[in-house]
């Protein structure tokens, strides 16, 4: 019988890449040749280290990942690439562990690897995404002494300023960027324009877009135009929004789903459903496949226009196009039907969700429950209430108040007792609920009934 063939370092990298289970990948990495006894240690490649660290980091198996990093620090045959450590810093950031990200950043030199602006930018990005604005400022103090900030550095800073509503700081950062000779790129302008639009400063955003093309010679990109189109659609300036779409097409920029979805949503909202369908078809022809968000935008617009027939047609079209409706698709329609008092249709759709292959979520339950309470369908609402509690959901306090108030006004003691018992079991009876019940009893001289209610609800 021939001896088993040993796995080579190159073969190990290939096997690790194909192994989807991070635990099995770790076992393979730690013992690549279990059937072969060799006095020499396995000569791992840098690629193998990169692959296993990435798999463990994505799976948030940080203890195991750190064990591999310690092993990597003892390697003398090669110097690890900085990107490996940038990835580790990002993994810690996604797990909301900025202190761990800092530790990794500090340890990079111990691996004989030089830190460049890439690792500094990665730390900045982690701090920004974790909301550590003060630590960002502290980190920036010494940055200039070690590396030269690049466009990515300034883009992160501008984004942080915009997200915190400090647009003046964002402008100052943009000015500093230019003074230092760092050329702004499409991301820079997209970030600034998005921040301006989010703060309703549309005129400034439009001027900046013009400067981007005329002064800075930056080619137009869809992410730059998307916030402008969204803001124009929000204020009802659809002709200007379509003008920007035409401008992108003149520059031969391929439109993304965000641009199409924004226009479709606006057209649907303003009752121009024929044009919305036309844009949808154009989107398909251009090779940009509509997704659930696109179709949901149409559904929402039609529901706002109370055109539920059109909304249902979109559902059918989604299925036909192979795009499965999600719970948001149904929640929008259920909410629209409830708002218009079509509670029977809303309830029918709600009960039909399992057949449609969609599971109700808490938003769905709260929507149908609130709708039934609004239209005084208290018996049906009580049934939904029990189902919610069974699934571990709870309605909003406003809806509970509306249900109890309605039952008190009707003096429906049997249903009121049932509701109070359910609410008591869920620990959702507050002072406001008891005030409603006692007020009802005083008006209708039913204090003895209230006493019985209290005794029944309070007894475990």
Automatic annotation (TrEMBL):
<feature type="repeat" description="PPR">
    <location>
        <begin position="150"/>
        <end position="184"/>
    </location>
</feature>
<feature type="repeat" description="PPR">
    <location>
        <begin position="185"/>
        <end position="215"/>
    </location>
</feature>
<dbReference type="Pfam" id="PF13041">
    <property type="entry name" value="PPR_2"/>
</dbReference>
<comment type="similarity">
    <text>Belongs to the PPR family. P subfamily.</text>
</comment>
<protein>
    <submittedName>
        <fullName>Pentatricopeptide repeat</fullName>
    </submittedName>
</protein>
<feature type="repeat" description="PPR">
    <location>
        <begin position="291"/>
        <end position="325"/>
    </location>
</feature>
<feature type="repeat" description="PPR">
    <location>
        <begin position="256"/>
        <end position="290"/>
    </location>
</feature>
<dbReference type="GO" id="GO:0007005">
    <property type="term" value="P:mitochondrion organization"/>
</dbReference>
<feature type="repeat" description="PPR">
    <location>
        <begin position="361"/>
        <end position="395"/>
    </location>
</feature>
<keyword id="KW-0677">Repeat</keyword>
<dbReference type="InterPro" id="IPR011990">
    <property type="entry name" value="TPR-like_helical_dom_sf"/>
</dbReference>
<dbReference type="GO" id="GO:0005739">
    <property type="term" value="C:mitochondrion"/>
</dbReference>
<dbReference type="GO" id="GO:0006396">
    <property type="term" value="P:RNA processing"/>
</dbReference>
<dbReference type="Pfam" id="PF01535">
    <property type="entry name" value="PPR"/>
</dbReference>
<dbReference type="InterPro" id="IPR051114">
    <property type="entry name" value="Mito_RNA_Proc_CCM1"/>
</dbReference>
<dbReference type="InterPro" id="IPR002885">
    <property type="entry name" value="PPR_rpt"/>
</dbReference>
<dbReference type="GO" id="GO:0003729">
    <property type="term" value="F:mRNA binding"/>
</dbReference>
<feature type="repeat" description="PPR">
    <location>
        <begin position="326"/>
        <end position="360"/>
    </location>
</feature>
């Amino acid at each position: 019988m021939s001896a088993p063939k040993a796995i080579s370092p190159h073969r190990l990298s290939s096997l690790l890449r194909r192994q989807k289970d991070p635990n099995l990948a770790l076992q393979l990495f730690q013992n690549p040749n279990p059937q072969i006894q060799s006095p020499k240690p396995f000569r791992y490649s840098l690629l193998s280290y990169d692959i296993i660290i990435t798999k463990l980091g994505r799976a948030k198996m940080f203890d195991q990942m750190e064990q591999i990093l310690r092993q990597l620090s003892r390697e003398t045959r090669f110097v690890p690439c900085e990107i490996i450590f940038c990835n580790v810093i990002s993994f810690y950031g996604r797990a909301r562990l900025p202190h761990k990200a800092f530790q990794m950043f500090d340890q990079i030199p111990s691996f004989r690897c030089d830190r460049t602006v890439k690792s500094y930018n990665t730390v900045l990005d982690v701090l920004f995404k974790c909301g550590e604005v003060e630590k960002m400022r502290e980190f920036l103090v010494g940055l200039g002494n070690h590396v030269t900030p690049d466009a990515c550095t300034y883009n992160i800073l501008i984004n942080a300023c915009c997200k915190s509503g400090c647009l003046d700081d964002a402008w100052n950062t943009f000015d500093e960027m230019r003074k230092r000779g760092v050329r702004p790129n499409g991301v820079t302008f997209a970030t600034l324009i998005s921040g301006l639009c989010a703060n309703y400063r549309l005129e400034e955003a439009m001027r900046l877009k013009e400067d981007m093309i005329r002064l800075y010679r930056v080619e137009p990109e869809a992410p730059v135009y998307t916030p402008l189109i969204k803001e124009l659609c929000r204020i009802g300036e659809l002709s200007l929004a379509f003008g920007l779409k035409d401008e992108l097409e003149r520059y031969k920029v391929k439109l993304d789903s965000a641009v199409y979805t924004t226009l479709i949503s606006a057209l649907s909202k303003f009752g121009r459903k024929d044009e919305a369908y036309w844009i949808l078809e154009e989107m398909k022809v251009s090779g940009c496949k509509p997704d659930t968000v696109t179709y949901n935008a149409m559904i929402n617009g039609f529901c706002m226009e109370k055109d539920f027939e059109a909304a249902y047609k979109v559902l059918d079209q989604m299925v036909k196009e192979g795009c499965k409706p999600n719970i948001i698709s149904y929640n929008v329609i259920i909410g629209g039907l409830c708002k218009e008092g079509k509670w029977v249709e809303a309830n029918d759709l709600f009960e039909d969700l399992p057949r449609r292959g969609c599971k109700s979520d808490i938003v769905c339950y709260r929507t149908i429950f609130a709708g039934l309470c609004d239209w005084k369908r208290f018996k049906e609402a009580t049934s939904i209430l029990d189902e919610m509690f069974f699934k571990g959901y709870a309605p909003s306090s406003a809806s509970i108040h509306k249900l109890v108030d309605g039952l008190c006004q009707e003096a429906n003691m049997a249903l009121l007792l049932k509701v109070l018992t359910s609410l008591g079991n869920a620990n959702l009876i507050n002072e406001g609920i008891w005030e409603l019940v006692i007020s009802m009893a005083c008006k209708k001289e039913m204090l003895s009934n209230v006493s019985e209610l209290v005794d029944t609800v309070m007894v475990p």
